[in-house]
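Hello,

Following up on my earlier ticket. Below are the four sequence lines again, exactly as submitted.
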Amino acid sequence: MIQEKYRECIEACLACMNACNYCYVSSLKEYELAMLRECIRLDRECADICAFAAEALSRNTLFALEISALCAKACDACAEECEKHSHDHCRQCAEACRRCADACRQMIGAA
Amino acid sequence: MIQEKYRECIEACLACMNACNYCYVSSLKEYELAMLRECIRLDRECADICAFAAEALSRNTLFALEISALCAKACDACAEECEKHSHDHCRQCAEACRRCADACRQMIGAA
Amino acid sequence: MIQEKYRECIEACLACMNACNYCYVSSLKEYELAMLRECIRLDRECADICAFAAEALSRNTLFALEISALCAKACDACAEECEKHSHDHCRQCAEACRRCADACRQMIGAA
Amino acid sequence: MIQEKYRECIEACLACMNACNYCYVSSLKEYELAMLRECIRLDRECADICAFAAEALSRNTLFALEISALCAKACDACAEECEKHSHDHCRQCAEACRRCADACRQMIGAA
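Thanks for your patience. The regenerated structure is below:
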């Protein structure tokens, strides 16, 4: 019930979407909001790209390599930003982003 | 790293998205295509609605009840159609749809 | 090249998506950020729902009424929030939301 | 109320999304369905990528170049497939795809 060749990558994208959206919601509630502008923006950006990538891979898109490369790039950018902050949600988000970027690159390498 | 109150519902939506898209791709390859018109259409419809619902719940949407009710309705319709066909991908898709509709309704009931 | 019966509603949804995302980006840059938390959250929410509604209507979704009702509700909520703020982007967003909510309700009424 | 620098590209993406989805719905109703398998698949693929690109550009995505390049590639592929068929919906879809691919490439060139 899933595109087997993309299973790991799809699951990493969906875990990353969840972590980014959790970080987005949590960041919007933080007291010190101004320093989180870029974090909020990148959380949404990365969540939306991961969600798009997961659905595209699950429909066996013809553009799997391009979409995974885009996703890896968004994950790198979001991880880099979140690593600047000490909130738990930022740290967990950065970890999910790094794992997803790795999964995307492994999938591209195996293609 | 996930909206805990929606965890089961998000996971059911994502499993259903995968099953619907797998059924969609597989149906488009079947020899007897004409009898699968509605199945193809509903697979895409349901996959897109499940993907949307999962991301909305993961960002703690203000419209969780409306979106889950929409998702349950789409899942019911897709399950009903897939249950008319004997292909493995249709049968598995129908099961994922029924589980997702249940998870959505449970979440609504608990709200 | 468009579902004629939904043309006005699709166009209002897309205009609203653009206005909400413009308000979202602009709000994240404002000096007084804390008072815009709800505005940012609702801008994204409404933009994502409008984008989803427009694509669903353009594929002649079976769930046009439910999706348009959801969209109208999100537009109302976003307009109500944006009307609390005096920024140009908030005022323009509120207007686009009101127009989109009207277009959705007109479409529902005509169905 | 719109990212001015991306206005033409966003509008071309949304017109292409509508044309692709119209062709998708119309193709699924054609009597000779089997010859349209690839057309149906590419219509959905291209519609979903155009919708994603339009929303990403409207939120001033950091990945405008990558996303526009992906969109141009999907539009080329869909146009190429639709040009094989003589249905009005295929011909109109191919034209919208060519226009969108051009708009994406112009935007990339101007960046």
